[in-house]
Amino acid sequence: MTLETPEAPSEVLLHSCCAPCSAAILEWMLDHGIKPTIFFYNPNIYPQKEYLIRKREIDRYAEKLGVRIIDGDYCHELWRISVLGLENEPERGKRCLACFSHRLLVTAECARKEGITHYTTTLAGSRWKSLEQIRAAAERADSLIPGVRYWDVNWKKGGLQERRSVLLKENNFYNQLYCGCEFSMGHLSDEQKIIILK
């Protein structure tokens, strides 16, 4: 897989939203001599049952790869405060920017504490997410947390989207039906919502 990237650091803190979105990125990093540490920080995920399912999957994959994982705290109420007043925003609207800003700020702080100078996010590999919003959120985090820098890679490129699909099937990952927050469940059928919220 050929992927255009800025100069690659030797070690990266990878903010992971889930195992399916992380798998191809982690594989690419390991294949290119980059040491990843996974940071699972997703207080946006609702309900907690869904959060735990997604966490279990990334834990399982990290163990398979022998990659260290750091578990961020799950505090959905804190995340709700970060998007207060933006509940009715559309997907890719101001709520998503606020969500990314919160999660990447905490990621940058984790990188600083761990002594890892660069961080990136699997959010930049999702076809449903705005790269412009992710970059704006990372720019804000970089300005507030000295000594760390966002490694700006478009993880949608270089065949990683296709590889994601292959790894999803190979590892029999749980493949979620929505972004994670309760406000992104609008496109789900009533039946799907019942299953998730049950």
UniProtKB/TrEMBL annotation:
Q: Which UniProt keywords apply?
A: 4Fe-4S, Disulfide bond, Iron, Iron-sulfur, Metal-binding, Oxidoreductase, Queuosine biosynthesis, Redox-active center, tRNA processing
Where along the chain is [4Fe-4S] cluster bound?
A: 17-18, 96, 99
Q: Name one Pfam family in it.
A: QueH
Q: Does the keyword Metal-binding apply?
A: yes
Q: Which domain of life is it from?
A: Bacteria
Signal peptide location in the record? Answer: none
Which chemical reaction does it catalyze? epoxyqueuosine(34) in tRNA + AH2 = queuosine(34) in tRNA + A + H2O
Keyword Iron listed: yes
Enzymatic class: oxidoreductase
- Could you tell me one molecular function GO term of this UniProt entry? metal ion binding
An example GO biological process term is: tRNA queuosine(34) biosynthetic process
- EC no.? 1.17.99.6
InterPro entries, per database record: QueH
Q: In which pathway does it act?
A: tRNA modification; tRNA-queuosine biosynthesis
Instruction: Name the cystine pairs.
Output: 179-181
The record's PANTHER family line, in alphabetical order, gives: EPOXYQUEUOSINE REDUCTASE QUEH
Assigned protein family? Belongs to the QueH family.
Q: What does this protein do?
A: Catalyzes the conversion of epoxyqueuosine (oQ) to queuosine (Q), which is a hypermodified base found in the wobble positions of tRNA(Asp), tRNA(Asn), tRNA(His) and tRNA(Tyr).
What is the name attached to this protein's record? Epoxyqueuosine reductase QueH
Q: Which organism is it from?
A: Parasutterella muris
The gene from which this protein is expressed is queH
